[in-house]
Amino acid sequence: MQLITKTTYLQFASCPKNAWLHLNKPELKEMFELSDFDKSLVAKGNLVESWARKLFPEGILISEYGESAHTITNQYLSEKKKIIFQSTFINDKFLVRNDVLEYNSDNDCWNLYEIKGTNTLDENEDSVDHIEDATFQVEVLNNIGIKLGQIYLVHLNKEYIRGDEIDVNALFIKEDISEQVKKRLESTRIKMKMASEALFQEDENALECQCIYLGRSNHCSTFGYSYPDVPKYSIHDLSRIGTSKKKLAELVDSKIYEIAEIPDSIKLTDIQQNQKNVHKTQTPIIDLHSIKKELESLTYPLYFLDYETYPPAIPLFKGFKPYQQIPFQFSLHVLRSPDAELEHFEYLHTENTDPSKHIISKLKEFIGSTGSIIVWSKRFEKSINAQLAERHPEDANFLGDINERIYDLMEIFQKQLYVHPGFKGKVSIKKVLPVLAPVLSYKDLEIQEGGAAMEAWYEMVFGNKSPEEQQVVAANLLKYCCLDTYAMYVIWKELINIIPN
Predict the structure, then answer these.
(1) What are residue 473's phi and psi, to 5 degrees?
(2) Which of 143, 253, 336, 406 is 20 to 30 A from residue 58's alpha carbon, by CA?
(3) Model pTM score
(4) What domains can you pick out in the chain, each with its CATH number?
C-alpha cells in the first residue's frame, strides 16, 4: 500500500494534481527526476543533517525504512532511548520519519527536532514552509498517541564564521517552534484530510493543477502534462509576471496563453510590453545611441572577468560562513587596445585548501591599475570581491579598486537597450549569446552551466577521483569558464560593430 510521506504531502500542499500524478502515474517518472541542482540541494541537506546529529552524541540511527523502521522505532520508544534519529511512524495513510526524537524523562514525553539546511526560519502562511513540515509530523504523532513536549527547528547560524575547526554548537541554532506549530495544527489537519481523500481517488481529472496561475519558475514538474496546449514560451514567461498575480489570473481566465495575443487593454509594464512587441513582430528593439553611449564609457585595457564559485552549507575553510561562496576559478580575457590581439588568462584551484589568496594573487598578476573590468551581473562579482577583501583586508584596496572599475555588460539588455525575440524575456548570457553569436555554444561542452561547474569542482577536490579523472574535470572547468568571458567579449564586439561611428 502506498503511503503519504511528508514529501508527498508537501507536494500536495503545493500542487494536488502534481502529487496525484507522482503517486499514480509511474509512466511519468521522467518528469519527477531531480535536476542536478535539486540533487545538489539534497546532498547538502544530508550533509547538514549528519553534522546536526553531532549535537546529540547519544543518538541511535535507524537506517531501515518502512515497516521495518516502524517496528524498530516502537521498540526504541518502549525502551525510552534517549535520542533516536530517523524514527518512523505509520498512521492510517501517512508515514513520517523524524530527524530527531529526544526523550524528556522529567515530563515523560518526546521532544521533536526538525533539521533544515537553511540559514533562517522560513515561516510564510501562504506557502509550504518549515512550520508546515513540522506540523505534519506532529499531527501524525499526536494521532498515534505519542506524547510530545517541545518542537524545535534546527538550522544553520548565518552569522557563524568557521575557525580552524568547526564548532558544531555555534554552527547551528535551535529554535523552539512549539507555538507556531500549535497555531497551524487545525489547518494542517484539514489539508491532510483533503490529501488522504484526493490522492487515492481514481479520477485524475477530479484534481486541477493550479500552477497555471503562477509564473514559469513556480510551475510543478508535470505542468506540461496537465496543460499540453500552453505554449512552451507563454504568458508565464513574461518578465516578473509571477509578482502580478491579478494580471496573470486575468489572462488565464480569458484563456490567453500566447504572448502575441495579449490584448492592448491589459496593462503591461514597459519591459513586458517590449517583450510582447518583439515577440509579436519578430523584430528586435535596438537603441543604438544609448548603446554607443554605454560602450564609449569604457576605457582600455578591457578586462572580461568571470568567477566560478562553490557555496557549501558547512563551511569548508576558516573564515567562511554557511553557504558563503568560495571563488575557486576565474577566467580573464584582456583587450589592451581596439586593434590588439585578445589575450586570455585563467586560474583554477585544484587543492583542498582555501583558494582565496591564490585568486587575489593571480588577479594582481593579470589586472593592471587602469582599464574597465567587464562582467555579466556585477552584483555577483562585486560581492565576491567584497568578501575576499573582508577575509584579506591587506588586499582590500586592490579589490575595492576592481569593484570601482567594474562595468556590467548585462545592463545593456537589462535596461532594454537591446531587446530581441530570441531572448524570450531573459537577459542571461546563455540567452543573449545564441542570438548575437550563434556560432558559439555551451552545448558542445561537458560542463554547460554554473551549477554543474560548482559540483564538478567539489567532486574533483573532495571526491574519490583518480588523478586522471581530476585532470579531465579540470580541463572541462577551464573550457567552461573560458567560454563565459570569451562570450562577453564576442557580445561586446557585436555591439561595437552595430553602433554608428
Answers:
(1) -60, -45
(2) 143
(3) 0.92
(4) 6-198 (3.90.320), 229-277 (no CATH), 290-498 (3.30.420.10)
